[in-house]
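Hi V.,

You were right to ask for the full record rather than a summary. Here it is.
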Amino acid sequence: MSVRAFLGIGLAPQVRTTLGSCGAALRETSREWRGEKWVPEENLHVTLKFLGTVAPDSLDEIVDVLRVVCEESAEYELSIGDVQAIPGLRAASMLWATLSEGESRTAELAASIDQALTTLDAPPQSRPFTAHITLARAHRPKAVPFDALDACNRALFGADARDKRMSVRGITLYSSTLTPRGALYEELAFVPFAG
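Predicted structure:
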């Protein structure tokens, strides 16, 4: 049976908790966004590459490719920047958190993965990569009240610096199972950086 899979950076517990508090602050301020699809704290991550539907016997090959990428990569720091309405406040389809530190390293890592996976005939990234953490998706584009986004970012800016920062030590291969209640993620493999 095939697996819906993606590669990502799992977030440290304190970073997930901080982002969960940001989402709670926004929902408390904006009734309109309470019923949207919020990513559960335990699922928060940075997606490096969505692989789509993958045959189970291909998973080992993907891990082997990740090992090559990770042999050339070293640990780095990642920090949360702010929360933004995408594409804008008037008609947002998503809310996501940006990176204030580690953004270029994360983009380089995504590009290395994209290039390395061409050996397995994986299609290249179709859109420019933007390092982010998805917090919520709207069922249809809708306005985000400025005061709600402001409350969200105040919760973020008020958090201790160590609760918005973490070390990135490797890449995780996840499976994603779609259910009526949302996606369930499972860590299939973690490949640490060699450097």
